[in-house]
Specification:
Layout: H1 12-30, H2 37-44, H3 48-52, H4 58-75, H5 87-102, H6 106-116, H7 122-142, H8 149-170, H9 179-226
Helix pairs in contact: 1-2, 4-5, 4-7, 5-9, 7-8, 8-9
């Protein structure tokens, strides 16, 4: 079925979506490295200039596709009873909302990432790091995580590792409903919860000791002066 449509017939938002969808279709047919933007233009019946108004190149289309996944992630809190879920449950739902948005083109996502990791694509790798950071920040916000200061920094590092580990595993997970990826994510979050609880316990132990320190010192000084 032809996807051609004169650019004047479509509004710009719809044209942008059609460009992304057509690139994904061609990527599925030929591999992500197997087509060019002029192929997208030809299939849509538009010019390269029309594409350039929306995307600076193929990687910009990749970013736009991942932004769709971010949008699905940001919609997760609209589910009834979101605030009643535990932080761990909210994190599970948030991360899988993001993954589900990519699921129709899972194999293509793996190809896109391999393309970014080519040694000559260092600039794409830098963009990839920024992309991961943005998504992790949105996951934290969606999950309503309250940590600040050094706790937030530790939490971000742990969540980044959990997100990337789950994503990498999910890309090659052929289990029904990605059940193995869900189980992996659950184990990783449980481990992170245990570590967070241990750190909180250590803080409670240290806090009274730090408060007692100066008073003990004063008592000692008083005893010395009294002697």
């Amino acid at each position: 079925m032809s996807e051609m449509a004169a650019p004047g017939v479509l509004d710009q938002a719809e044209l942008r979506c059609r460009i992304i969808d057509t690139a994904l279709t061609l990527g599925t047919e030929r591999g992500w490295d197997g087509f060019h933007l002029h192929d997208v233009a030809a299939r849509l019946g538009i010019s390269l200039a029309d594409i350039a108004r929306h995307f600076a190149g193929k990687d910009a289309i990749v970013e736009a596709w991942f932004e769709r996944a971010d949008a699905a992630l940001l919609a997760a809190p609209e589910a009834p009873g979101w605030h009643l879920l535990s932080p761990r449950e909210r994190l599970q739902h948030a991360i899988f909302s993001w993954l589900r948005a990519l699921a129709p083109h899972r194999q293509l996502a793996a190809e896109m990432l391999r393309y970014k990791l080519h040694p000559e694509h260092l600039h794409l790798q830098v963009q990839g790091v920024l992309r991961v950071s943005r998504t992790v920040q949105w996951i934290r916000e969606v999950a309503l995580l309250p940590a600040t200061g050094w706790r937030r920094e530790c939490e971000e590092a742990a969540l980044t590792a959990i997100y990337l580990t789950t994503f990498a595993y999910w890309l090659r997970d052929d289990s029904l409903g990605a059940s193995r990826s869900r189980n992996l994510l659950d184990r990783l979050l449980a481990r992170a919860e245990w570590v967070a609880g241990w750190l909180e316990g250590m803080d409670r132990v240290k806090a009274p000791a730090s408060r007692a320190g100066p008073s003990t010192s004063k008592a000692g000084n008083g005893a010395d002066s009294g002697g």
